Amino acid sequence: MIAALCESFGPPENLVLRDVPDPVPGAGEVLVAPTRVALNFFDTLIIADKYQLKPALPFSPGGEFCGRVVALGAGVSGFSPGQRVAGYCSYGAARSRLVVPAESLTPVPDGLDDDQAAGLFITYGTTLYALKQRAHLREGETLAVLGASGGVGLAAVEIGRAMGAQVIACASSPEKLEFARGFGAQQGIDYAAQDLKEALKRATDGRGVDCVYDAIGGDFSEKAVRAMAWNGRFLVVGFAAGEIPKIPLNLTLLKGCSLIGVFWGEFVKREPAAHRENMAQIFDWAANKTISAHVHAVLPLERIAEALNMLKERKAQGKIVLAVPQ
Q: Which CA distances in Å does 148 have to 121, 167, 184, 224, 303?
């Protein structure tokens, strides 16, 4: 089988394609042939040894996928060879054969294509967990999404609207804001041209924002906290800007707001039943077009460095997906 491998930490250009032996599923495992592998911003960090998860070299990036079942390990039921499935595996998916635990797989409904199904776990799974279990977002509340045109930001726009929130897209250009509006954002703020704090206050008639979804970090985080409403919830999702902000804690006292961490991978491990319920909701939304599962680009596996650089340079509007040779 073919695999994209990180053999030494560094930029995407360090990745190589290798022929490696086919894996064999053990008890409770399933051998899958991925047709599509979705990439995420953290893939650019994990191959540079800048992420909290540190796999041993060599390894394949790619944390989510869609494909077909090839073989079942001992004790596995509920799946059959040839069945379309999607799954999550933290890393290791960018290869033509993959072994994963059976419980990490979800059947793909007929109305959903492989491109879309491959990218539903991490961005949409993280977002529904953030807005449902962590923020307890309620219908009619205001939700500000920082980095609203990227993969995870777009998921927040769509799921926020599906949950009945008034969504304020925040991005770095008018083009990105127009893109986010096309997926349900009712308002837009260009934080490259406006002061984010003041713009958020204007957008909420001075009341402040009920919930902020921040996957960007950097200089914008504190400005967004300063625009929080009383009892607001600030969701710490990621740091795509590269800098981990240091929020003055007196702001939480003055605003009566909460800073809430969102660690979806740990949620999956600790609360598997709630995770399965969330994913069933997401796949249902995707199949009935409540959410778009928008794909920005599909590139062949051999162009993985180009694909990762699109994420690294924040050029993607939606998901970046790899087509894996069979």
A: 18, 10, 11, 14, 26
